[in-house]
Design the sequence.
C-alpha cells in the first residue's frame, strides 16, 4: 500500500520528523505562501492521502519561510483562472462560479475530513485563505508575531471557503467574530488567545513549530483507534444536537470498543509500560 | 424610493451622523427607555425600513439619556395590554398569549433580520428587554457603568423574546449563561467582556457611542455587497451545520461575486485610493 | 406522593440542607467515588426522582471525601460487567455493546433531563466519568485543587457517555476542547475558569460546596415555573436554530405565563416582600 | 375586534355561506384569475385576517368563473414590476430579486400559516401560481375538467414560490413529482387523484365547490381547539423528526388539554347532543 | 437471561406460535381492547422485553375478540387518572399534563423502538389509540371489516401520542392525511390500502392474522443481523436527510458486515440449503 | 473543454442518440450487468463528467442485453476485494469497511448529484445494486418483465449504498417499503407503479427505452437553467423543511432569474417559435 512518502509534491514540503508524525509545510515562501489554484488542488491531494495512510497519526501544518504562514489568495493567479466577469449571461456565469467555489471549499475542508488530527501552526502574515485553512484544523497554535485578518471584505466579497462557516463555532464570542469579519481588521496573538481562536502562543516561529510537533508526537503515542474516534465524534458533535451525537457515538463505539488498543492500554496502565498499538 | 428619513418616529431618534451610518436612539429617557407595546412595534418598523434602505450601510442602536440603555418592559403598559389572566378557558387564553409572544419576538428579531450590521451600544441600566434586543444585534459595546441582568425569572417567567434563544450562541461558557439566566443576578462591564458578551468596554457612555459610530463608519466604508453577505452568512452559520452553510454560501456568492465591488476593491488595492461602491 | 426522602440510597448521600435544596453526594470515598455499574444505575434513579419531586427546586452534586469528586470508571467492576471481548461474532458483540452504551448514556443524561437546575461542585481528582457527569449539569463550580482530565483516550477509547457530545457546546474554544480530548492531559482550576468550563473557583472544597449551596438556595427562592422553564428553554436552544427555539418558547410560555407566580412576583416587587410560590 | 367582514377586497370575493365557514374566491375571471402583484399582496392580507378571526373556523379557496381556478402569473403585470433585467450590477440585481421572491413566497405561504384549515377547490386551468397556492392549502379537491401544470420551466425558470418546496412532501411518488416538474406537462383530475395530490374529484365545478363547503362545514362543527391544534401539529410534523414533533406536541397539549372543548365534547358524546364550542 | 416467557401479563396474551415469532394480543375483548393507563404501561413493558430477547425475531400485534383491534382510550379510566381540570394554577396543571403525555408517548413508541420488526394486524373497530399504536408498527395489515378513525378531534383534542407525528410520513397523500385527521371521519380497508396506510387487506380477521404470522415467520427465517439493521436504518432514514443516513449506515455496517450471517447466507446461496443464524 | 465523448469506457456504452441527450448503458450483459468494484468506480466517473458537460441536458440510464438491468453486486469480485473477514482487530477491520462503504455510496450518489436529470429505465432482473442505483435517478420507468428485489437481507446484510436511505422518500407507503426491505421478496411492474416507485410501465424493454429517450428529449428541449435548477431545488426540498427550502430557493433564483432563457422562453411564447437556449 502506498504511503505519503511515495509521492512528490510541488508546493508542499512533507516530512516525518518523528514516527507517525507528519509535518506539512506550505512551500512558496517567495510568494508569502499564497494559494494559487494548483496549490489548493495539491493541498487536497496531500490531506486525502494522509487521511488513510497507516504511517500517519498526527499532522502539523505550517508555512515555510520567516514572513508568512500564508498571505492568502494568489491574486495574480486568480485573475487568470476565474472566467470573465461581467460578460454573458449572469445565470450561466453563476453556475460556473458555484462549481468553482464548491471545489475550492472541498479542498479547504480536506484538513477537517482528514481522519488524523491536524495541528495548525501560524506565524507572520496569516490572512484570507490562511484563516480559512486554519479553521479546518483541529488545534491552532501561533507565534507571537502572527498578524491575522479575515480579509475578504477588503476585496469586495464575503468569505466563501470556510471562515464564515466555521469561525462562529470555533470561538465563544459572536460579537468578536462579527467585528473581525465585518471590518477585516488585523488582530494579533494575544487577542487570538484570549478569544480562544488559538490555544497556545509561543515567542518565535521555531518555538511554535516545536510545540506543534511535540503535541503531535504526544497524540501519536496514544491509541489511534481512540484518537481518530475522538476527532470524528467531536466534529460530528459540532454539527448535531446532543441526542444525535450520543446515538451516533453508540454505534461508532459498538465496533471500536472491540479494539485491541483497549486491552493494550489497560495492560500498560497496570504494568506502567508504554503500550504499542497496531497501525490504523 | 422612500428612505428612513421620510418617516417620523415617536419613540426613537433616528439620525445619520455620517454618510451611510444611522444612529437609532431609544428615546424615552424619562421612562428609562422602557418598552411599551407601541415602542416595540415602532422598533420593528424602524429596522424593517433600514434593512432595505440604500442610504444605510451600518446602524448604531443606543438609549437616550444618562441612566439607562433600557430598563426593560414597561410594566405599567404591559398590565393593561395583556388580556385578563386566570379568567376563562386556559386553552383560549394560551392561544392569545402565543400570538402575542410571536409578534413580540418578531419585533425583537427585526434587528437581526436587518440586512445591515447593527452595533448595540449599552450603558447604565440594561436589563430584561435590553438584553433581548442586544442579542439581536451583531456587535455589542458597553460603557463602564452598564448594569446588565437577564431579569425575567424575577418577574416569574422564562425570558421568551430571544435572550434564552440567542445568549447560549453568543458567548462561550454555558455555565455562565445558566448562572445569569437562572438567578437574574446583575453583572457588569468587565464580566460581560470576559465572557465575550460585549467586545469593547469604554469609560463613559459618550466614549462608547463614539466607538460604536466609528466602527459603523468603518464598516460603511467597505463594499456593501461584501458586508451584507458576511452578516447573512454568519447568521446562517449559527443555525446550520458547516456543510449546509458551505452549500448555501456557494449559491450566495455565485451571484455576489459578479459584483462591481470586487473589481472596485481590487483596483483600489492597486491604486491605493479609497474605492467607491454603488448603493445597496 | 412519594418524595426523594422516601428512598434509601446505597452509593449516594442525599440530604436537604435548606428548604427546596437537595445535596447529592457520590458516597464511595474509599474508591475515590469511582463509578461501577450499580453506581450509575442508582445515579439515574436519584435524578429521575428529583426531577418531578415538588420538594426540590435546585440540586447540588458533589463527591464525598477529600481526595476526589470522582476518579471515573471503576475499572475492576467494568472488567467483570462487559461481556468477553474478542470472542464470537463481532456484529453480535457490537449489538450488546451498543445497548450497554445507550443505557450508560441515559444514566449520565439524567442530570441534564432533571427538570430542576443541577450545580456540580468538583474537587480533587475529577477525571473520566467525572467530566461526563459534570457536562450534564447546568452550572459547574470547582475547588482550587481540582485536577481534571478527559481521560478516555488513555484507556484506548473515544469517550462515549457525553463528554465529546457536550463539551464543544459548553466552552467557547474548539482548539482547547480538541487539545484536552485528544491528549487526555490534566488541566486545573484556573484553566477551567479561563475557558469557561467552570464559572467559579474557590480556595477549598468546603468553600466550593458552600458556594454551590448558596447558589442553589438563591435559585430555589425564585419562581419554580420561571426557573424550570428557563432550564428547559436553554437546553432546547443549545440543540436548535434560533427560529425553532423561538417557536417552541412561544408555545411553552402560552401555558406558563398563566402562572400564579407571575402575579406573585409582580406583587412582591411592589410590596418589597419575598414572594411565596406554589410547589412544582 | 374587527372581523374579515369589516374589510373590502379588490381582487377577492370573501363570503360566509354558513356559520364559521368562509369562502374566498379569486375574483378576476376576465383575466383567468391570473395573479398580478396587487393580487398576491391582497391574498396575504386576506389570509392573515382569517387566521385570527374568531368568526372563522374553516376556509374554502376557489376561483371565480367557469374557465380557470387560476392561469398563474399575470405576465403583463410582471414585466412592468420586475426591475430591468440584464442591466447594471448582477449582484445588486440579485439582491432586489431575492427580496422580491421572499415577499412573494410569504404571500403564498399565508394560506399554510393561516391557523384555520384551508380547502382548495380547483377547476379548469390551474397552472403555475395555481399549483403553488394549492400546495399551501390543507386539503385539495378538484373538478373533472381541471388542467394542472407545474408550468415554470416553460418560462425559463425553476418554480420559486413553493411548488418545489411542498409538492415532494404532499404526494408519495418522487418519480411522478420530478416528471411533472421537469417537463411542465399537463396532468388531469384522475392522475392527480391517483398520486394523492387531490383527495376528491367531482364531476363539475359546482359539485366540487359544494363538496368543499360541506367539508369545511363539517370541520367547523368540531372543537376549534382540536382542529387548529391538529393543523399546527401536522404542519410541524412535515418538517421535523418524529421525536421533535412528539416533544412539541406534549408542550402544545399541556395547555390545550385544559380546554373547555374537551369537557363539552365528552359530555355531548354521552348526551348525544351537538356540542357548542367557544370562539377561537 | 430472562426471556419474554418468564413474565406473566395482565392485559396481553403473548405467545410464540412458531420459533422466533411472537404474537402479542391486546386482551380486553370485553372492553373492545380499550386502553386504560395500566394497559399502556404494560404495553411498554412487553415491547421493551421483546426488543432485546434473543428468542424473538419478529412480532405480530393484534387485538383479541371479534369486534375490535382497539376502541381507543378507556374513557372511564382516563377520567379518574387525569388530575382535576380547570382547578388551580394552569401552569402547574400544564406541567403535570406534559409529563403525563410524555410517558404515554414513550409507551406507544416502544413498538417502534423495539429492535425486532412489528407487524400490526387490525380488524373491526380500530380508532383513536388503535391508529396511534399501528403507526408505531413497521407493517400494517387489516381485515376487510376494519373501521378506522383518527378520532381525537371528536373528543376535543389534537392527537398527541403519535398519530399526527407519524401518519404524514407513513402515507403519500397529505391531502388525505389532513382530511381524516381534521374530520375524524371513518375510513375502511380499501381506502386504507389505496393510500398505502396498510399494505395488505384480507377477507377475515383470521386470514389477516395468518398472513401476519406468515410474514413474521418469513422475516424470522432471515439473518437477524440484516433484519434488525434494516429496521434501524429505515427508521433513521425517515427522520434524517439522505447524506446523514448514509453516514450513519456506513458506521452501522462497519461492525455489522463482520457478521457470521453474511458468510452463512452466502454459503447457503451456493449450497441451496437453508442457513442457520445465531441468536441476536 | 473536454466532453463525455472524449473518453472511452470499459463497462458502459455512452452514446448521444439525439442532441443534448445521453444514453448510458451498463454494458456487461454476459454478467447480467452485475457490478464489480471497477464498474461502480467507472459509473462515478461517467456521471461526474456528464454533470458539467455543456453538451448534456438529460441522461437515460439502462442495462444492455435482454435479461437484466442489473443483477446487483458481482459477488465473485466482491469476495476478492473485501479484506479478510473475521481476522485481526474488529475495530481496524471496521475502519477499512467504513471507508469502503463511503466510497461505494459516493459512486452510487453520483447520479443524484449529476446536475442534469437522470431517467432510469429498468427491465428484467433489477435487484440489489439495481435498486440502489435507480433510487439515485430522478425518474424511474420500467418494462413489464422487470423483477425487482431489495435483495440485501438475503445475503445477510442491511442495504448500505442508498436503498434504505432513499426508498422511504421516493414512495408513499412506509408499510410497503418495510415489507419489501425486510423480506427481500420480489415485486413486479404493476406493484412498482401502484406504489409510485416507477412512474411508467411499458410492454417491452424497447418500448421503455424509447419512452425514456423521448422524455429525456422533451426535457432537453427546455431551458437548461430552469431544468437544472428544478432538479437541484427538488433534491434540496427532500432533505429540508419547507422554510429552509424557500430561503435556499430565493438565493438560487436571485442569480438564475437573470438568465437569458427567461427572456427567450417568454418571447417564444409570444412568437410560437421554439426557443433556443445557450449551453450550460
Sequence:
Amino acid at each position: 500500500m502506498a504511503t505519503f512518502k511515495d509521492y512528490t509534491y510541488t508546493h508542499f514540503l512533507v516530512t516525518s520528523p518523528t514516527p507517525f508524525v507528519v509535518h506539512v509545510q506550505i512551500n512558496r515562501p517567495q510568494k508569502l505562501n499564497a494559494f494559487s489554484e494548483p496549490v489548493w488542488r495539491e493541498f487536497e491531494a496531500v490531506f486525502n492521502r494522509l487521511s488513510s495512510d497507516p504511517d500517519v497519526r498526527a499532522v502539523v501544518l505550517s508555512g515555510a519561510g520567516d514572513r508568512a504562514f500564508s498571505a492568502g489568495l494568489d491574486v495574480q493567479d486568480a485573475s487568470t483562472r476565474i472566467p470573465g466577469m461581467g460578460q454573458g449571461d449572469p445565470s450561466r456565469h453563476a453556475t460556473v462560479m458555484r462549481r468553482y467555489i464548491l471545489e475550492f471549499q472541498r479542498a479547504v475542508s480536506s484538513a477537517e475530513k482528514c481522519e488524523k488530527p491536524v495541528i495548525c501552526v501560524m506565524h507572520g502574515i496569516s490572512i484570507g485563505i490562511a484563516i480559512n485553512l486554519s479553521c479546518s484544523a483541529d488545534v491552532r497554535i501561533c507565534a507571537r508575531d502572527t498578524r491575522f485578518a479575515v480579509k475578504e471584505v477588503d476585496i469586495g466579497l464575503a468569505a466563501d471557503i470556510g471562515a464564515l462557516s466555521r469561525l462562529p463555532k470555533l470561538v465563544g464570542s459572536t460579537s468578536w467574530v462579527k467585528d473581525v469579519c465585518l471590518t477585516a481588521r488585523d488582530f494579533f496573538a494575544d487577542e487570538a488567545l484570549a478569544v480562544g481562536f488559538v490555544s497556545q502562543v509561543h515567542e518565535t516561529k521555531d518555538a511554535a513549530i516545536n510545540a506543534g510537533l511535540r503535541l503531535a508526537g504526544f497524540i501519536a503515542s496514544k491509541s489511534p483507534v481512540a484518537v481518530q474516534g475522538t476527532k470524528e465524534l467531536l466534529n460530528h458533535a459540532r454539527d448535531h444536537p446532543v441526542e444525535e451525537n450520543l446515538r451516533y457515538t453508540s454505534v461508532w463505539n459498538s465496533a471500536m470498543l472491540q479494539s485491541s488498543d483497549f486491552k493494550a492500554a489497560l495492560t500498560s496502565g497496570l504494568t506502567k509500560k508504554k503500550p504499542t498499538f497496531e497501525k490504523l
Remarks:
- Strands of chain F lie at 12-18, 21-26, 58-63, 68-70, 118-122, 125-127, 139-143, 147-149, 187-188, 200-202.
- Chain F is about 50% helix and 15% strand.
- The mean pLDDT of chain F is 94.
- The domain at 12-221 of chain F is CATH 3.90.226.10 (2-enoyl-CoA Hydratase; Chain A, domain 1).
